[in-house]
Amino acid sequence: MAVRFGVNGWVWVSPLNTDELKTLAPRVKAMGFDILEVPLEGIGDLDYKVGAQILKDNGLGVTTCAAMGPDRDLIHEDAKIRESGLTYIRQAIEATHTLGGTNLVGPIYSAVGRVWQQTAADRAKDVDLLVQNLGLLAKAAGDSGVVLGIEPLNRFETSFINTADQVIEVIDRVNHASCKVMLDSFHMNIEEKSLGAAIRKVGKARLCHFHACENDRGAPGSGNVTWGEVGQALRDIDFAGPVVIESFTDKVKSIARAAAIWRPFERSQDALAENGLEFLKRLLAG
């Protein structure tokens, strides 16, 4: 199980622009990470060709994550907002390709923080719409050599896809090699009865990406996530995809309110990344 370890740029900065990347990439490499995950808050924040060279020069792989704001929603009742969401993800696919990455991950369905009551009929209609739109995006992703990793979020950040079962339903209906699942232990810790069972149910064929996050968004290994269970399940499915630490500074205005980022989680952001990586290597790199 040859796992590659990464860290999200949101641990330190928001937005991650070209100048910030020049500073951050060598720091991330020196810490021992294999991958830098680039958040795509604003499509124009970063010069992607220059970014690709910066990452290459520092010996770093790259993944990207989507930032689904109020005007980026694939199942909204307003067709203009749905089209805005489709346009953004198409642009994010191209950005990922230009950076030299494969995985574009996140809650690629509705805006983070949008919650609403649904009848069974309403939900079925929204799932149908999402499957249709993800089918279009998966084709575009596949044409660019990109894979979409669809992420369940906890109930406080979305009312739509919270669990492994719910995301499996969508992914299996899309049925495209470029539309898979990303799981995040922070959200799973709230929503799943068993983190290990959820990982095994998603399985190797569907799981393309894993966010290793503590229950309080601090350094992995410092809280109450059942990491032994997580590690065993990832070994059971022979997962070799990226394992990425995602946390945030309070500078992340695009999702700080939805994700409730009100305070620091460790004595420093560097400590969060370094301590988390040390723990994950002990857990998974054997």
Question: How do you describe this structure in short?
Answer:
The chain is an alpha/beta fold. The chain is built from nine helices and eight strands. It has one domain (about 5-285): TIM Barrel (Alpha-Beta Barrel).
Notes on the structure:
- The protein is α/β, with parallel strands linked by helices and 286 residues long.
- The protein starts with a strand and ends with a helix.
- It has one domain (4-284): Divalent-metal-dependent TIM barrel enzymes (TIM Barrel).
- It is globular and about 50 Å long.
- The chain has helices spanning 18-31, 48-57, 79-99, 120-143, 164-174, 185-191, 195-206, 227-236, 269-284, and strands spanning 4-8, 35-40, 61-66, 103-106, 147-150, 179-184, 207-211, 242-245.
Which quaternary structure do these chains form? single chain
Beta-strand percentage range: 5-15%
In whole angstroms, the N-to-C terminal distance is 8 Å
What is the H/E string?
Answer: EHEHEHEHEHEHHEHEH
Per DSSP, the total helix count is: 9
Radius of gyration: 17 Å
Going across the major beta sheet, what is the strand order?
1-2-3-4-5-6-7-8
Structural class: alpha/beta
Helix content: 40-55%
Mean pLDDT: 95
Overall 3D geometry? globular
